[in-house]
Amino acid sequence: MTQPNERPSATMQPRKTIALVAHDNKKDDLLEWADHNQAVLRQHHLCATGTTGRMLADKLGLDVTRLQSGPLGGDLQLGAMIANREIDMLFFFFDPLEAQPHDPDIRALLRIAAVWNIPVATNRATADFLVSSPLMSAAYERLLTDYHDYRTRLEPKI
């Protein structure tokens, strides 16, 4: 609960819950990156959309909670988890050159990550910066936007 004039926040614990997603043309890139960063990733709880999760578990032996494949609703599952404050970080290696049949779901996932102010890496360079940050293994108080005015605007007037 926040005090008047105090911004709401959410505490990210030292052991983060990390979502991993990759489009087909970026799965090898994510797999190579995850292989290089296994020591860090093993310190956190990982969840991933279908095929990506299976590849990380089968090829690298990582313990991954697997959701549906992205086009079958995995992106939406992750979005709901972000809104419920169950995801701390999103690593989404997406293919910027190929249209995806579930592009609206992808945009919604990235939008909800911005709404709840979670770190997002959409490419390998950004992912490298995030995993090498000292905040990766520390508690972090993530500031949230106070959506009180937005919520009350939507309430029916009686």
Q: Quick summary of this structure?
A:
With 158 residues, the protein is an alpha/beta fold.
**Relative strand content:** 15-25%
Question: CATH topology, anyone?
Answer: Rossmann fold
Q: What's the overall average pLDDT, rounded? A: 89
C-alpha end-to-end distance: 27 Å
Order of helices and strands: EEHHEHEHEHEHEH
- The CATH architecture would be 3-Layer(aba) Sandwich
Largest sheet: 5 strands, parallel
Order of strands across the main sheet: 4-3-2-5-6
In terms of per-residue confidence, which ranges show pLDDT below 50 for 5 or more consecutive residues? none
Shape: globular
Corresponding CATH superfamily: Methylglyoxal synthase-like domain
List how many beta strands DSSP finds.
7
Structure description:
The protein is of the alpha/beta class and 158 residues long. It has one domain (13-154): Methylglyoxal synthase-like domain (Rossmann fold), CATH 3.40.50. The chain is built from seven helices and seven strands; from the N terminus they run ββααβαβαβαβαβα. Strands 4-3-2-5-6 form a five-stranded parallel sheet, with helices on both faces. The protein has a two-stranded antiparallel sheet with strand order 1-7. The mean pLDDT is 89.
